Amino acid sequence: xxxxAAMRRPDGTxxxxxxxxxxxxxxxxxxxxxxxxxxxxxxxxxPTTRTFDDMSxxxxxxTIDYDPFAHFTPAALVMRERFVQLGLxxxxxxxxxxxxxxxxxxxxxxxxxxxxxxxxxxxETAVQLFHHRRPRAHPMTVPRTNHQAVVSHVAAEHGIGGxxxxxxxxxxxxxxxxxxxxxxxxxxxxxxxxxxxxxxxxHYSVMRAFQAAxxxxxxxxxxxxxxxxxxxxxxxxxxxxxxxxxxxxxRGATIIAEVAGAGMSTDPSDQVHPVVxxxxxxxxxxxxxxxxxxxxxxxxxxxxxxxPLNDAVETQAVKEVxxxxxxxxxxxxxxxxxxHTFGAAGALELTSTLIGMRDGFAPPTVNYLGPDAACDLDxxxxxxxxxxxxxxxxxxxxxGGLNVALAxxxxxxxxxxxxx
Amino acid sequence: xxxxxxxxxxxxxDCVLRVNPTFERAQIGPDTSFRDLGLTSLEVISVVFEIxxxxxxxxxxxxLDRFQxxxxxxxxxRGMPGVMA
Lengths: 420, 85
Prior knowledge:
The structure holds two protein chains of two kinds. Chain A is of the alpha/beta class. Chain A has helices at residues 31-40, 68-71, 74-79, 82-98, 102-105, 119-131, 141-145, 149-158, 173-186, 204-212, 245-250, 277-290, 308-322, 335-338, 345-359; strands at 16-25, 28-29, 46-52, 55-62, 109-113, 164-167, 192-199, 233-234, 236-244, 257-266, 299-301, 330-332, 361-362, 385-386, 391-398, 402-409.
């Protein structure tokens, strides 16, 4: 089904719901693997080594142990870099879970976030050109490294002919993608959408780059904790199937949650130094967009990178927006479990939020050693907590001062918001 | 070091298979046209790239990348000094 004039809602009054989820994370392939890992309160982060000649680097990272040949043909792999493979696996799962038919998907939008694209091929090309001093790059370099490869492969795989594009805003990319895809469904520009993100950054050169920026932890990621020293790298992908509430109800689909609103902002000040104002503006905008009263927010999946300054600034922003309610809500960081998956983080963390909402628990912040006065909210330390979550928020804040907050809420089978 | 014609043919077929592993080796004879095999234009120039890398020669810059079959590629390569095994 393609978007028709009759579907257009210039006032943006279509309500947008999630009817399918797909995920690939350090916990394994599939939403079930992610759910198990979140609930077990374990971490998928391990010391991870990448080498070039006799040089090597070891950093904490969350990677996915899978055999590409078990999932793709050798011919398909020629064109599919790892970030594309991860995106395809997550999209396959999300589409299957949604139950949307091929005709219903034909006019879907595909909006993905991706920070780096084909980092491995880019690295191999640098070796070819500068190390081996060869005169030519591999002719497949461009189609393999292009960020948009992921959406075009997903489109081809599922026969999707609607609008598709990639948003490359680093750590906020897939949160921006979900906000954009939800807006397209809301205004009737597409009947449904595959929204998510993918990233495969665990390569020698990328590890060196983040190590040089001094943002990577020594051994593990412990957000909001005393002694935190940065994030761990992570690879993964998550995809959400979004459609109108009307469409989902009419086909009897299982509604996981409503994407109730999104807020976005930019800090026009510093490229890397986080400040409170921008994140606070994004959170307020998401609350206003969704009509959710701040005091009803049960849970926040934080950006929570575990760098000393970021976590303190995020805590401050939440206190500024929520006031006294900040001490009642829960705010944890899934990055402690699956690493920082950059362009996939927003989608994986919203998926983690929805898993918690579905299964009745708040995902934990693991590796927590003890309180830090600058991060004095309840971060669900070290173990998941049983909790009925009706209303939640997911934060993504990128280098460059780009901030996104996504608001989700649980609906009853008739499409009415659940209340505590 | 020069190569036997059979070894050179095998090495060129390897280059085609690296670009598109869908094919069976038996499908690619010395006179099979790359286009007839169904290789896209990007795949054909990828075959040229693989041959340049395998034999450490420069074909594109010398305007020698016009071949369409394994046999034509062999003819080009055998005309080049220092083709390495």
